[in-house]
Amino acid sequence: MYFQMQRRLSDDVLPEIRSICMEELGLWMKLYSSAFLSDSYLKYMGWMMYDKVNDVRLKCVLSLQGLYADPLLVSKLDLFTSRFKDRMISMTLDKDTEVAVQTMKLLVLISKCVTCLFVVLVSSHVYCRGEASACFTFMQVLICIELQT
């Protein structure tokens, strides 16, 4: 039943409803990971990262930050990461500065727990703009990972 309801709500015309859906889906994935942290639900999060409304994209990124920050959940995000990594990288150049900054913070979290191949892909595509501290943190992580390898 949730699957049908989520599908209809994520296609809703009102961006406020899509935004709330992504925020709640992220919360449910974190709290009830055994039931909701699966590819059948993660794909909605990935698809909504392409939404034309800034707030919907922002809620997706913030929800993903909560998931990637939990070391116990990261292993369940491998397929999602590989499937949507190009989109996450391109969102660092989002027209909305807050989306771009939060995406950089998300990539910092991902880079701490995913292979160096991802870091190489990110470092070749990210151009810093927006909030300087997010950019600085991102570059610091890249340098630390480079020194460790």
TrEMBL record:
Signal peptide: none annotated. Coiled coil: none annotated. GO terms for biological process: sister chromatid cohesion. InterPro entries: ARM-type_fold (IPR016024), Cohesin_Scc3/SA (IPR039662), SCD (IPR020839). SUPFAM superfamilies: ARM repeat (SSF48371). Belongs to the SCC3 family. PANTHER family: COHESIN SUBUNIT SA (PTHR11199:SF2), STROMAL ANTIGEN (PTHR11199). This is SCD domain-containing protein. It comes from Monopterus albus. The lineage of its organism: Eukaryota, Metazoa, Chordata, Craniata, Vertebrata.
